[in-house]
Amino acid sequence: MAKSFPLKRAMAENKTPDSNGTSEAGSVSNEIGELEEAFRKFAVHGDTRATGRELNGKNWSKLCKDCGIIDGKNVTITDVDIVFSKVKNKSGRTITYEQFKEALQELAEKRFKEKTGEEAVQQVYKMIEGKGPVVSGITVAVDSPTVSRLTDTSKFTGSHKERFDESGKGKGKAGRVEIVDDSGYVSGYKHAGTYEQKVKGRSK
């Protein structure tokens, strides 16, 4: 049976309770605005046709992961999936903003067991407000001594050394395949091309 939190009743009255138990009208509108902004950012993530009014299961899970609601202990990916299935319409595949807030209340109880229902919900809201999807897949080159040592061609030996010139530039096929010199009568003769010079030297 779902619990009724004081925060939910206060929000319905367009008021938010502070630490002294008093209410302050207007400040809640900013909180809701930031929360809804985050909802819309995740709702359109990866889908150019999305309107931002409904959140699918994949992006709901991403939101919970990117915002740190999933901690692997109190809240797991399985918990997130179960709550999503619980609050969505029976035949639906997405949740509205109102259903989204219901789902957060469910997770708040699990994520912050040591807090009261109201405090837990506020804490979860703060984790999400103003946030957006984390873009992954960007590889950053890491400069480390190990990598530098392995890529320093001046320290290569054997057949690997033959594949690079003195500047470290690869020789291409010449560095991988032994090319046979068949320009003279004797293959690989080191004095090839010197005959003309010798003849001219003798005629002087």
From TrEMBL:
A matching Pfam family: p25-alpha
Species lineage: Eukaryota, Metazoa, Chordata, Craniata, Vertebrata
GO CC annotation: cytoplasm; microtubule
Major subcellular location class: cytoplasm
Compartments it resides in: Cytoplasm
Protein name stated in the entry: Tubulin polymerization-promoting protein-like
Region (Disordered): 1-30
Domain of life according to the entry: Eukaryota
Gene3D superfamilies, sorted: EF-hand (1.10.238.10)
Protein encoded by which gene: LOC114663496
Any one GO molecular-function label of the UniProt entry: tubulin binding
Keywords: Cytoplasm
InterPro entries recorded: EF-hand-dom_pair, TPP/p25
Stretches with biased composition (Polar residues): 17-30
GO BP term, pick one: positive regulation of protein polymerization
Family assignment from sequence similarity: Belongs to the TPPP family.
